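Quick entry between incubations.
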Amino acid sequence: EVQLLESGGGLVQPGGSLRLSCAASGFTFSTYAMSWVRQAPGKGLEWVSSISGSGGSTYYADSVKGRFTISRDNSKNTLFLQMNSLRADDTAVYYCASRVGGAKAFDIWGQGTMVTVSS
Amino acid sequence: QTVVTQEPSFSVSPGGTVTLTCGLNSGSVSTTYYPSWYQQTPGQAPRTLIYSTNTRSSGVPDRFSGSILGNKAALTITGAQPDDESDYYCVLYMGSGISVFGGGTKLTVL
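Done. Structure below.
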C-alpha cells in the first residue's frame, strides 16, 4: 500500500525552528518528486516547496523562501522540511505529497502534521 | 502576482451535474498550465481527482471529469452524490517548479 506518514509537528515559539519528516512506503521513493503543502486553520491549501527525485532541484514559495529548506534521504525513503525563523502565519497543517504527471501535480497525500507557532 | 480564481461556493441537487471552474486573474488557462483538481472534506487530507487537465487519478470514478472550457479549467461532476459535498481545489503549474492553488470551492449537495 502506498503511504506517506508525516511527523515532527508541534508547538514552537515565534523565531524558533522545527523539522518535519515524511516517511514513504509502497512505492519507489527515489523516482518521485515530492512536495510540502500547508493549510492554515480554516483556510485553503498553499503549496510550500517541492524537490526532485534525486534531490538536486528544489523550489519554494515566496512566503517561505530563505526560511524553509526541503531535503530528502532516498536511502531511508524520507522527505524533510526544515523550518527556521517561524512566524505566527506559518501555523498550519503541513501535508507531504508525491508528484505525478511529470511532477506538475500532486498525487498521494499524507495525513498531515500540525505546526503551531505561538508564544 | 498570480491569482488562481475559483467560485467560493456552489450548490447542486443529488443526481445533478455541476461544473466548477478555475481561472487566472490575468490571462487564460490552457493545458500548458497542467490544471489539476483535489477534493477535501473537513478534517481530512486532500484527495487527487484529476491531473494534466483531464487524467483521472487512480480509483476516481468517471463521473468526475476535467477539461478546458473557454479560458478556464473545469471540473465537471455528473450525477452528484451526497458524498461529493466537499471543498474542491484546483492547482495550476506555473513552471520552474511552482504550483499555485486556487482559493477552493465549497460544494453543497442538496
